[in-house]
Amino acid sequence: MGFYNTDNWPAKSEYYRWPWSSNDNPVQWLEVTDLCNIHCKGCYRSRMEGHRPLAVLKEEVDFCIKNRNIDTVCIAGGEPLIYPDIVKLVEYISGRGLKANIITNTQAMTEKLVRELLDAGIYGFTCHIDMVQARPNQPRASSELELMPKRQQIADLIYKVGKGKIYVTFNSTIYHENFKYIPDIVSWAHKNVEKVSGLDFITYRGIPLGKNVTWDVEEERGPIDLSKTFGYTDNYRQIDITSVDVYNLIKDRFGDVFEPCAYLGGTGDVKQYKWWGQVFIMERNGKLHGSLGPRFMELLQIGHHWFTGKYFMYLRGNRAPRIAILLTALIGDKKMRKARRSILKGMANPLTWFRQLRFQSIGINQPPDMLENGMSCMCESCPDACVWNGNLVSSCRLDEYRRYGKLMSAIVHEEDRESHKEAPAANKA
């Protein structure tokens, strides 16, 4: 199942399955450019189009409003901040009553640009920073600890401009090199709860290459040389980290105060957690009380859909009165008992009664895997779907559509199946 504490594989019955679907999903993924100003090892986007026309992007937003019932548009690439019409695009999305969230490596982020985006109606930034990235004129970090000042600089900059009005998350692609630093990033975020709304950890995935697997689109075309076409040269042992590995590492550091509340599974393997969501309940100084429970998350999703007609992934407000958490006992959320007890214990001091609690989320994502039989295990109810030729496709495999007009097929050769079985269980699912 993975490589880290694999005996702890939580049952899905412990969590709330997000109710999202293709036609009622809180998120649209909008690819604005395939150009970028840095290089990431885990990048799945080739340079084929450059900057896309603004008019086409507006049409895709309108398409998803009508056919996907979206709440948020995640603007991605490439690097969105180098897209020349990024401010106009954010203004259009905001004007359509949607949340505009930019996924950026922050290399081109300036105070002036953040102010312009705030004026245009930006809702949030997802800032991708990890030690394996190659940034121009900057030495590659030897550990995630070296990047804490970089994260702090970006968090301070956005908070200075937005004064807490901009939703800010930080994400990292997780490799064997930086896996052990995940708890350190979480601890840093706790110290910055006023500035950082959440974290996302995305396990590295690539297309596994080997003698036992070939990739094809049409029989007459022949096998595809992925090392040249998409630049993938990874073997199984480089892509064996699972979402459960990340869960167990955080759990080992923070104990019972860390517990996810909701998930999305995989299309090809019922055991996998493709999307896993957790929300810390804490004081302003970072003291932890516990995590939101599945019943409370269910109430939030259903309530949001009842009043707005849409589900949500991002909520800007990260504060709530203590009574709101204590009242979760009335809806039978047993998972929040520890949090309620911790909050009640602190209320022995009357000075704490009117201090609001803070929330900070952690998302764990495990992108597509190839199963032993050659099938792909995708994320069910994919929140990162984007528009291609008048339909929705998974953004992580968009380049296959852009290059071939359809998905590639994996062919597993029976004579080499035994060697395939020697690969880590995470990739066999």
Characteristic terms for this protein:
429 residues, alpha/beta, TIM Barrel, 12-stranded mixed beta sheet, two-stranded antiparallel sheet, 13 helices, 18 strands, 28% helix
Summarize the entry for a quick read.
This protein is an alpha/beta fold.
Distance between the termini: 7 Å
Shape: globular
CATH class: Alpha Beta
Q: What share of residues is helical?
A: 25-40%
Uncertain runs are 416-429
CATH topology: the name is: TIM Barrel
Beta strand count: 18
**Beta-sheet strand percentage?**
15-25%
Q: What CATH architecture label applies?
A: Alpha-Beta Barrel
pLDDT averaged over residues: 89
Total number of distinct structural domains: 1
Helices, by number, come to: 13
* Helix/strand class: alpha/beta
* Rg value: 21 Å
Largest sheet: 12 strands, mixed
